[in-house]
Write a structure and sequence with these properties.
There is one protein chain. It is built from 25 helices and 9 strands. By secondary structure, the chain is mainly alpha-helical. The strands form 2 sheets. The protein has a 7-stranded mixed sheet. Helix 1 (2-33) runs parallel beside helix 7 (134-154) and helix 4 crosses helix 5 (84-118).
Length: 562
């Protein structure tokens, strides 16, 4: 018997090792495919990381971007000191390192989940119910992690969501230890510290901490003990969050834990563009620190004073949009709810999760007494609460799969824990055969998506080539430049260490390109009068530049120098 047990354990470990290795290799492949890419948020994170590492606190404290990821990126760049050509690859491999950390945190959570489920054996036996075998838990666990982190968070993206995922799963593992008992105030205190770091990774985690705290409460413990535990959680949470909230509130002159929510509502519900300067659309207040309009039609703007960041408008949006007054927009709100509802549907019923949905339906349909289904699910309420809270916060404003991804593991844990199947050989075969069918297909879908990413993305370091060209024509680090088109997508400016202070943004670039030649010449002249050294366009330009627009190799970018 012991020999059979050892053989079973060795097979289980071998299976888990294979799944673990596959998840790591797929993540590595996805990161490698995207190593030369950078997104607008990523540029702001890197700029903030520089500010933190040089101790420039007035530039580092930011009400739109949270501090944890910038500090991690800044440390990596300071330690490794990569050349400009390797800066973006290094940052992507930092994301891969966080991905591995998230995988280990998920494994901690999932192991505690298996133990939590196994601890209920007496209840299952008394009701004649089968428990999910450990191999089923392991197989589905790695598949859920792979889909949520590779497809929904997207390893091509430089941001904070992978850090949030790692901390959420670590906190979820502690949550399960609390639910299993016995507990102490020290465990709750640790839980609060983790929630505090989750806030430092992303500001929305502060209000979501309420859902996690509620999920941790064991109402059978009695009110006095429960209040003691809540106080312990809050002590840990306050210990970590208070210094940053204090610095943020001092920076903006009022108590605040983030300035992002109102801006997200303005962008996504009220329809305010990122480059709002008080005139288009009107009626939303008057900017306190507006961009200066240097040409009327097509509109061109410049950032005056001492702007910060590679692209100041996206480095600290609360500063440039101060004075913006959001207002309830019924039509915009209904439209947002409709669009986000479709996104949520696609998240849960799209190709990557449909296997999990089918598995759950099969298990519930062929389960025990169907009247036990709802009570069985309700007993898992604490798994669902964080996801429901996240949906309640995001749905009216903006839903993105990467926002929901950190909570999907908790959601499916609750769904699988709620399964009630009769304890029979047929049930065990059904559970194992479902995992054997669904998990390989899920891995295959992600593999196909990863292979397609190499064709879709390519491996040309476009941003570095543009930066290198700027240096070749005499533009030096610290110089100011102009940009036309998708100005926020300015990885070239980050690598060249120049600052975009004059722009014709994406909302006005078509009007510029379709204007008469004399008008374009006048716009370009107005831009150069602001003191910039060159203008970079992300599309072909034919006139307006006194020295003609020069193509940067085959990058699709064009440069005008005076």
């Amino acid at each position: 018997m012991s020999g059979m047990s050892l053989q079973f354990k060795s097979r289980r470990y071998a299976t888990e090792a294979v799944l673990f290795a596959l998840v790591v290799l797929i993540g590595l492949a996805r990161v490698s495919a995207a190593r030369h890419l950078i997104n607008p948020d990523g540029i702001s994170y890197l700029d903030l990381g520089d500010a933190y590492l040089r101790g420039d606190w007035s530039a580092a404290i930011n009400g739109y971007w949270s501090p944890l990821s910038p500090v991690l990126f800044g440390l990596a760049l300071k330690i490794l000191r990569p050349s400009p050509a390797l800066e973006f690859p290094v940052v992507h491999y930092v994301i891969f390192g966080i991905y591995i950390a998230a995988l280990l945190c998920f494994r901690f959570f999932w192991k505690n989940l298996i133990h939590y489920h196994a601890a209920q054996r007496r209840d299952y036996d008394s009701q004649g119910l089968a428990q999910l075998p450990e191999p089923v838990w392991i197989a589905f666990g790695y598949a859920i992690f792979l889909v949520s982190c590779v497809e929904f968070i997207n390893l091509e993206y430089i941001g904070a969501d992978m850090s949030v995922t790692a901390i959420v799963y670590l906190a979820a593992g502690v949550l399960l230890r609390i639910r299993r008992g016995p507990v102490s105030w020290k465990l709750y205190f640790l839980f609060g510290i983790l929630l505090g770091f989750a806030y430092l990774a992303k500001a929305v985690m502060l209000p979501l901490s309420g859902a996690f705290i509620l999920a941790s409460l064991r109402f059978s413990a009695g009110w006095r003990r429960m209040l003691c535990y809540v106080a312990s959680v809050l002590a840990g949470l306050i210990l970590i969050t208070t210094p940053y909230i204090g610095a943020l509130s001092k920076h903006y002159g009022h108590l605040t834990y983030s300035e992002s929510r109102d801006l997200m509502y303005a962008f996504n519900v009220d329809g305010i563009p990122f480059w709002w300067a008080g005139d288009d659309p009107p009626g939303f207040g008057h900017p306190i620190h507006p961009r200066t309009r240097i040409f009327e039609n097509p509109p061109a703007y410049t950032f005056e004073g001492s702007p910060r960041g590679t692209y100041p408008g996206w480095y600290e949006p609360p500063y440039w949009l101060a004075g913006l007054q959001t207002r309830f927009n019924l039509r915009g709100q209904l439209f947002r709810l409709k669009v986000d509802g479709q996104i949520l549907f696609d998240i849960f019923f799209g190709a990557f999760q449909v296997g999990f949905v089918i598995s759950a339906l099969v298990w519930y349909l062929f389960g025990a007494d169907r009247f036990c289904v709802l009570p069985g699910l309700l007993r898992q309420w604490f798994f669902f609460l964080p996801l429901l809270a996240a949906i309640a916060i995001y749905w009216p404003i903006w839903v993105d799969p990467r926002y929901i991804a950190p909570f999907l593991g908790l959601f499916w844990a609750g769904i699988f824990c709620g399964v009630r199947m009769p304890d029979s050989p047929q049930s065990r075969r059904l559970l194992l055969s479902t995992a054997a069918a669904v998990v390989p297909v899920t891995f295959l879908l992600v593999l196909v998506s990863t292979a397609a990413a190499f064709d879709r993305i390519g491996n040309i370091p476009v941003q570095f080539r543009v930066a290198d060209y700027l240096h070749q024509i005499g533009v030096r680090p610290g110089d100011r430049v102009g940009a036309v088109g998708r100005v926020m997508e300015c990885g070239w400016a980050r690598l060249a260490r120049v600052q975009i202070t004059t722009e014709i943004n994406h909302g006005s670039d078509t009007a510029f390109r379709t204007s008469a030649a004399p008008v374009r010449s006048a716009v370009v002249a107005a831009m150069f009068r602001t003191g910039i050294r060159a203008i970079v366009s992300d599309s072909r330009e034919d006139s307006g530049c006194p020295s003609n627009w020069h193509a940067v190799d085959s990058t699709g970018f064009y440069v005008c120098a005076p």
